[in-house]
Amino acid sequence: MTQQRWQKNAEWPLTIAAIVFLVAYAWEVIADLEGVAGVTAESIIWATWVIFMVDYVANLALAPQRWGWFRGHIFDLLVVVLPVLRPLRLLRVITLLTVLKRTAGAAFRERVVVYVAGASILLVFVASLAVLDADRSAPNSNITTFGDALWWAFVTITTVGYGDFSPVTDAGRLIAGGLMLGGIALLGVVTATLASWIVERVAQQEEDSRVATHGEIRALVQQIAELQATLDATAKTESSRASTTGH
Amino acid sequence: MTQQRWQKNAEWPLTIAAIVFLVAYAWEVIADLEGVAGVTAESIIWATWVIFMVDYVANLALAPQRWGWFRGHIFDLLVVVLPVLRPLRLLRVITLLTVLKRTAGAAFRERVVVYVAGASILLVFVASLAVLDADRSAPNSNITTFGDALWWAFVTITTVGYGDFSPVTDAGRLIAGGLMLGGIALLGVVTATLASWIVERVAQQEEDSRVATHGEIRALVQQIAELQATLDATAKTESSRASTTGH
Amino acid sequence: MTQQRWQKNAEWPLTIAAIVFLVAYAWEVIADLEGVAGVTAESIIWATWVIFMVDYVANLALAPQRWGWFRGHIFDLLVVVLPVLRPLRLLRVITLLTVLKRTAGAAFRERVVVYVAGASILLVFVASLAVLDADRSAPNSNITTFGDALWWAFVTITTVGYGDFSPVTDAGRLIAGGLMLGGIALLGVVTATLASWIVERVAQQEEDSRVATHGEIRALVQQIAELQATLDATAKTESSRASTTGH
Amino acid sequence: MTQQRWQKNAEWPLTIAAIVFLVAYAWEVIADLEGVAGVTAESIIWATWVIFMVDYVANLALAPQRWGWFRGHIFDLLVVVLPVLRPLRLLRVITLLTVLKRTAGAAFRERVVVYVAGASILLVFVASLAVLDADRSAPNSNITTFGDALWWAFVTITTVGYGDFSPVTDAGRLIAGGLMLGGIALLGVVTATLASWIVERVAQQEEDSRVATHGEIRALVQQIAELQATLDATAKTESSRASTTGH
Q: Which of A13, A168, C7, C37 has the maximal Cβ count within 10 Å?
C-alpha cells in the first residue's frame, strides 16, 4: 500500500492517540498520581507512544525515497525516539493541529486566526502541564499547583512576565523558552493579520484610489483585443478594395 | 413592532444603563461600601441588570428567526444570565463601545484609533475595579487600593509586567487574562495602523513608483473606448465609400 | 508682524531655551542640589519658563483667528500654565523634536527612524530624570540614583519590565505610564517600518509580479494617445480623399 | 593589491578568528579559568584581536580614499581600538553574520528569517557570556552560573522579563540594553515578515481582486504596440493607394 493511503488512514487514529495521550498525561500530572493509578496513566501514555512509533516506521517503510523522507522528518524522529525526555513527549500533541487545519474556514485570514488561537490555547495548556510536572518536586520551586502553572503560562505567552512564578529546573526553563517563542509568534500573527485587514479596509474605503486589480487589467486587455479585431476588419476591407481598384 | 425599531429605541437607554451601572459599581468598589450605601449601590446595579435582561428578552421575542438570533448572541446571554459572576457583570460596559463607534470620524484609520483608545481606557478602568473587588479581601493579596489596581492594570495592558502587583485570586487572574489579551490586541492595532499609514506615505512620496489605482485604470478604459469610437467612425466612412466606388 | 514670522524667529530661541532647561533640570536632579546651587538651577528653569510663556502669549496675540488657535493648542497651554506640576514642565523638551524633524533626511522611512530614535532617547532620558526627582525622597522607593533610574526607564520602554525597580509615587507612576505608551509606540513604529521595507524588497525581488505603478500606467496612457493621433491622421487623409474622389 | 582582493582573501581568516575568539572567550568565562588556563585563553583572545587589528589597518591602507573609508567605519575602529572594554570585544562576533548572509537562501523573506534567527541565537549566547563575565563577581549579583545567564538572556530578548535574574553592574546593564533592543528588533522582524507573507497570501487567494502586476502591464504595453503596428501598416497602404489614385 502507498504512503498516501497509510497517511490518510492513520490520520484519525493518530489524532485520537494524541488526545488520549494528552488526557492521560493531564490526569497523571494534575492529580499527581501515585501507585496503581500512576502506573495505569503511564502505561496509557506508553501505548500512545507505540502508535506514533508504528506510524513513523510505516511511513519510513512506505516512503518512495526513504532517505529523502527521513531527512525531511528529523523532527518526527526526535518525537518518537526520545520519549524519555518527558517534555519532548508533548510534541505529539502537534498532531492535533492538523485537525484545526481542516476544520478551519475558507478565507485565509480567518484560517490563520483559528489556527493561531487553537495552537496558543493548546500551547498554554500543554506548557502548564509540563512545567508543573518538571518543577513541582524541585527544591525552592514556586510552581506547585496546576492553577499557578496555568497562570504562569498565560503571563508568559503574553510576554507580560510578572515574575511571581518562574521555572527553576532546566526542563521547566526549556518549556518556558518554547512558550516565549510562541508568545512572539502569537503577537506577530495577531499584528500581521490586523495589518493586512486594515490595509485592505483603508483601500476599499477610498474607492477611487483603490489599487488597480488583476480583474481590471483583464478587462482592459479584452477591450484592446476587440479594438484590434475592428482594426483588422478595416484593414481587410481596405486591401480587398485596394485590389479591386488596382484592377 | 420590529426588532430594528426596538434596537434603535433601546440603544440610548442601554448606554445610559451601562454608564449608571459603571458609576454605581465604581462607587461601591472604590469606597468599599458597607451597610445602607452598599445596599443602595447593589440595588442600582441590579436595576441596570433588569434593563439588560428586558432588552435581551425583547430582542429574542422580536427576532425574525429566534433560533438564529439566539445562536448568534450566546455572549449576550452569558452577560445577562450570569450576573452572579461579578466580573462578568462588567461585560455590560461593552455597550458603551457602540457609542464610540458612532462618534468616531470618517476615515477608517482614525476610527480604528479612536475605537481602540476608548476600548483600552475602558478596559483598564473596568479591570482595575474588578481586580480590586476580587483581590482586596484575599489573604496575601497585594492589590488593596484603587491606585495600585489602576497602576497594575496599566502595567499589564502594556505587557510590561513589573510584578510589583499581581492578582492572587482566580477571579482576579481571569480578569488579568482578559487584560493581557487586550494588551496584545492594543499592540497589534497600534502597529498595524502605523504600518498601513507608513506604507501609504512611502507610496505617496515616490509619486512615480506609486501603486496604480482604480481611478487611473478607469481613465485608461475610457481613453480606449474613445479610440474604439474613432475607429468605428473611420470604418463606417470606409464601407460607405466602398459601396459608392463599388457602384 | 505676522504669526509666521514670529514662529520662524522664535524657533531657535525656543530650542535653546529647551536645551538650557533640560541641562539645568538634569543638573539639579542628578546632583540633588541644595542651597545656592539649587536656587540657581531653579531660577534658570523659571527663566526658560518665561520664554515659553512669552512665546505662547505672542502666538495667541498674533494668531489670525485667536479662538481657533487656542482650541488647537490646549496642550501648549497646559505646558505653559501648569509648570507647578514638575513632571509637566518636562513637556517643554518636545520643542527639541522639531529640530529632529528638520535635520532628518529625505526618504520618509529614514525620517521616521531618525525621529523615533531621537524621541525615544529623549523620552528615556527625561523620564529617568523625572522619576528620580519624584521617587528619590519617597519612603520605600527603590529608585534612588540616576543610574538606576536610567536602567529602569530602559527596561520599561522596551516593555521588558523586570520589576527590580518600579516607581511608588503617583507622579512617578504617571511618568512611567507615559514611558510605557512610548514603548508601545516605539515597538509599533519599528515593526511598521520594517514591514513596509520588507514588503517593498519582496516586491522588487520578484520583478515580474511587482505591483503595477503609477509610472507604468502613465506610459500606457501616453502610448494610447499616440495611437489615437495616428488614427486621427488616417481618418483625415481618408475624408480628404473621400471628398476628392467624391468630386 | 586592491582592497577588494584583500577583503575577499581576509573574509575566511576573519570568520575563523571570530569563531576561535568566541570559543576561547566562552571557555574562559564558563569555566571561570584561573592560572595557566586563564592566561592561555586570554592570549588566544589577544591573538584574534591582532588579526582584526591587522585587517583594519590593511583596509585603511588599501582604501581608494582613506578618509571616506575611515568615516564609514568608525564602528570597526571602536571594535579594534577598545578591546580593553571587555563587552566591546564581543562585537567582533558580528563578523560571523557575514557568513549567514552568504549561506542564506534565495527568496528575500527566507533570507531575512535565517539571518534574524542566526543573529538572535548569537546575541543570546554572547550576551549571556558577557553578563556572566560582568556580574558573576559583583556583590549582591544573582547571575552566577552560565545556565542562569542563558535563561536571563532568553527571558530578556523575548521582552518577558520575569525579573528573577537581572544584571546589577553597569557593564551588565549595558549588555542587557543591547539585548532588549535586539528583542524589539526580533519582534519587529518576525511580525513584519509575517505581515508581508499574509498580505501576499490573501492577495493570491482572491485571484480576481489581486493587485495588478508589472508583468500584466508589460503584456498590455506589448499588445498596444502590435495595435500601433497594424495601424501603421493600414496607414501606409492608404497613402500609397492615395498616390496611385491621385495619379
A: A168
